[in-house]
Write a structure and sequence with these properties.
Elements lengths: L1 H15 L23 E3 L1 E2 L2 E2 L6 H5 L5 E7 L5 E9 L8 H5 L5 E3 L14 E2 L1 H4 L4
Antiparallel strand pairs: 1-6, 2-3, 4-5, 5-7
């Protein structure tokens, strides 16, 4: 009866002193999983956004946080004249990324999204473009 209790305590003590439990956050950044869904990013092709304003991402978004307005260039190709994501409404489900037919939208590993003003949480097309 006492032997299983001692073995259980032994396992508990071994895990208790194995590594620190708390991460000293500002100095130490956590390791983010490769499939983590963080901040969105618009992908760039030939020095312009790949988005063709097909309206699939705002259609499939359950939180209705994506706003797209289409424009047309000189070659009569559609492009996203306005593209905004309200991060206060976004639930980071990734449906918009899966629905994109031209692979124009992706999710990055960025998880630090704190701001002081509500307006800073509305990410425009310029803020979402990939930084190269």
């Amino acid at each position: 009866m006492i032997v299983p209790l001692i073995k259980g305590l032994q396992i508990t003590l071994k895990h208790l002193f194995k590594k620190p439990i708390t991460l000293m956050y500002p100095e130490e950044k956590p390791d983010v999983a490769p499939n983590f869904r963080g901040l969105h990013a618009l992908k760039v092709s030939h020095n312009k956004a790949k988005c063709v304003a097909c309206y699939l991402c705002p259609t499939v978004c359950p939180a209705k946080c994506i706003t797209v307005e289409a424009g047309e260039d000189a070659n009569h190709d559609k492009y996203a004249a306005k593209y905004e994501i309200d991060m206060l409404r976004c639930i980071f489900c990734g449906y918009c990324v899966e629905a994109c037919p031209v692979d124009a939208l992706g999710m990055t590993q960025t998880f630090e999204l704190a701001n002081y003003k509500r307006s800073d949480f509305v990410f425009t097309k310029e803020r979402l473009l990939e930084k190269k």
